[in-house]
Amino acid sequence: MLTRNCLLLFLWILVDEGSVSSLRPPSPPLGRSRTGREHAKSLVGPMRNGAAGFQRVKRGWVWNQFFVLEEYMGSDPQYVGKLHTDLDSGDSGVKYTLSGDGAGSIFTIDQTTGDIHALRSLDREEKPYYTLRAQAVDIDTNRPLEPESEFVIKVQDINDNEPKFLEGPYRASVPEMSPVGTYVTQVTATDADDPTYGNSARVVYSILHGQPYFSVDPKTGVIKTALPNMDREVKEQYQVLIQAKDMGGQLGGLAGTTTINITLSDVNDNPPRFSKSFFHLRVPESSAVGSAVGRIKAHDLDIGKNAEVEYTIVPGDGGAMFDITTNEHNQEGIIILKRPLDYESKKAYTFKVDASNAHLDPRFQSFGAFKDTATVKINVLDVDEPPVFNKPSYLMDVYEDTPAGTIIGAVTAQDLDASSSPVRYSIDWKSDLDSYFDIDPVEGTISTNELLDRESIAQHNISIVATKLNSPVLNSRVAVTVHVLDINEFPPELASPYETFVCENSKAGQVIQTFSAKDQDLPAAGQQFSFKSSKEDQKNKNFTIRDFGNNTAGIVTKRGGFRRRLQEIYLLPVVIDDNGYPPKSSTGTLTIRVCGCESDGSLLTCSAEAIFLPVGLSTGALIAILLCIIILLVIVVLYVGLRRQKKKETLMSSKEDIRDNVIHYDDEGGGEEDTHAFDMGTLRNPKVVKENLFRRDVKPEMKRGPRVPVSQDSADIRDFISQRLKEHDVDNSAPPYDSLATYAYEGDGSVAESLSSIESLAIDPEEDYDYLNDWGPRFKTLAGIFGEQSETQSDSTTTDNTH
C-alpha cells in the first residue's frame, strides 16, 4: 500500500509540470474510501494547451484515503501518506496542520513536507478507522491558504484473531437407536477479524474427536449422528471435540475448539426379564387376607417410565387365591393373599406371572413380545390354630320365667388341625357377671341358671370361649345373644267399641261391619288374631263371623228383612284367639242396631240417638242438620227477645232526658207541686240517673265522691233523700243555683207498669210448631224438641200469672 501511494505521488509530479491554479475537490463522505488509482485518474484530464487532446485539471489538494497496517512491529514510525497543495511552491512557505482522531498522539504530520506517520501499533478490532482534518496555512502569517479538509485513515486488517466458541462447552442429547443423520445440536464460532477483507474471518468446522459416531457440517456447525442404532445400554455418554479454523481452513489459519457432551436418551427398546423362571415361596396358613406373602422381580434395562413393569397372574390353579401388585419404587411384584389359607384343605398353589412394560414403543414391537413369564409355587405351612366355631355368632330365644336348668341352645367348635384336639367350652365371666346361664364344657349346651325376667333384662349378650384340650393357650370366642321372650299375659280384645247398624232392607250374605282386635302383650308387630262365633251362638240365624285372615273379621248377615218395630238391637258374641305362649282367648260382644236406610244403603234413621252417630250419616249430612238446628234456635231466641223488649217500658213518664229541658232563669218556680219542669219519674227510678254530669257555668273544684247506690226497695227513703241533698249542696256539677230538685218516691202501685217478662210473654199467643210433624220422619225429632219447649214456656207462663 505504501508503494501504491508513492506511485500516485510520482504520477502527480509528472503531470503537474507548470503552475496549476488552485482547485479543491469535494471531500468524500466519512467512511467512504477511494483508491489511489481512482485519484490518479481524477488528476489526468484533457490538456488545455492542446497536447494530444488532454488537459490538466487543476486541484487545490492532492490527497487520498490512507491505509495503515495493524499490529505494525517496526522500530520506526509507520509511514501513512503525504499531503500536498498546489499552493506549495517548495519554498517552505506553506505549513501543514493535522487535527481529529489521534492527531498528535497516534498520527503526526511533517509541517513542511506533509508526510503523515503512525507513532504506534494499531489494532483494527479496537478501532477500525480514524477521521482527521488537514489544513494548509501560510507559515508567516498563519493564514489558511485553503479551507480545512477531512480524510480517513483505515486500519488494514491482518489475521490476528482465532475463532472462538462463546457458549461452550455444550450439552446435547439424542434418542438411542436413532438413524444416521439425526440432528443433535449446532455450534457457532465467531472471529473478530474483518469479514470483508480476505479470509481472516472465514471459519470452517471440523470434528477432532467423536468419530465415527457423529459428524459436523463444515459451514453451519450442525452436528448429526453418523452411526445407526447406537444403544444407550451399551454406551450412554459421548464427548465430541469440534474445531473452528479461519482462513477457510487453509494452512496458517488460526483455530479454536470446543467440547460437546452428548447423552443418548432412553427409549423402550428392552422388555422386562425375570432373573429366573421359577420362584418358590412359603406362607403360613394363618396369614391374614390382604397381607404380602412374597416378592418377585423382573429387570428392565431401560430407565424411567420405560422401565415400569406390570405384573399379572395368569388364570389357573392358584390365580383365584392370590393377587399381585407393583411396587412403584423398585418395580417389584408383591404377591398378596386374597382368600384365607387352610393347610388341611390344600397345601400348595402353583401359578404363572407375566411381566410386561406399561409404556410400549411401536417402533420396537417387531423385536418380539415385550413381556416375560415366570412360574410361582407357594407352599402353605401348617400352623397350630385355635378351635373354629361353625357360626360367626349365635342367636337364642327363651321365655321369661323359664325354670332353671332349661337348655336354650348349643354352640359347636372343632379343631381343624391334623391333631384334632378335643374342645372344651366355658362362659366368659365378664359377659355374665350375674351367672344367668351355664354351659356344658363338653357338649356346649347352654342352659338357664335362674329365672329370667324380661321386664328387667330383655336381652343378654354372653361370650363363649372354646379352648383346645392339648393346647390351652389356643382359644377362640363367639358372641351369643339371648332374647328373653314375653309370656302371653293378656287376652286379646276388640280394638274399639264398635257401633254397628244393619239396614232394614239388607240382604243375606252382606258384610255390614269390619272389626279388628288388639293385645297388650309385646311385641305388637308379630301378633296374630283369629275370630269365630261362640259355641252358644253358632245356631244364630241372623248374623255370623267371617275371619279374613289378616287380623280383621267381618259381620255377615245370614238373612234379610230386619224390622225395628220387631227388634231394634241384636247382640253378637265373637271369640278372639291370639298366637301367644300360652295362647289366650276372650269373647267380645258386638251391638247391632236395626236402622232405616235409603235404597243405596245410606243411613236414614235408627232412633233419636242413632241419627247423630257417624255410622249412619255422612259428615255433610250431619253438618247440614246441625246448621239447620242452630239457625232455628237463633231465630227463636231473637223472636222471644223482641217480644219481651216490646213489653218492657221505663219508669219515666216522659221520654225526654232532663238534660234536654230548657230552664228559664227569669221564671219563678211553682213550688213543690210544680212537676212540669222536671221529670219526677227520674227521681223514682235511680237506675236511669246518669253520672258525671258537670255544670258548664262553674269550674269543678273537687272531685265528686262515689255515690252509694240506693236500692229501689230501701225502707228508709228519707235518709237517701237527705244524703242526695247534701251532695247537691257541695257538688259543683249540680244543676244551676236557681234550679229546684224535687225528690219523691213511688212504691207499690206506681204509675210505672209491671216489668214482668211473664206478663209480656202472655200478651201474644205462642207460635205452634206442630206443622213440623207434617214434614216427614226426618223432622220428627226437631218437632218433638220444639214441642216440649212450647209446653215448658206455657207452663212457666201459667205459673207466673198465678203468682
Automatic annotation (TrEMBL):
Residues 1-22 form the signal peptide. GO terms for biological process: adherens junction organization; calcium-dependent cell-cell adhesion via plasma membrane cell adhesion molecules; cell migration; cell morphogenesis; cell-cell adhesion mediated by cadherin; cell-cell junction assembly; homophilic cell adhesion via plasma membrane adhesion molecules; morphogenesis of an epithelium. Residues 85-165, 166-274, 275-389, 390-494, 494-612 form the Cadherin domain. InterPro entries: Cadherin, Cadherin-like_dom, Cadherin-like_sf, Cadherin_CS, Cadherin_Y-type_LIR, Catenin-bd_sf. GO terms for molecular function: beta-catenin binding; cadherin binding; calcium ion binding. The chain crosses the membrane at residues 611-642. SMART domains: CA (SM00112). This is Cadherin-12. It comes from Eleginops maclovinus (Patagonian blennie).
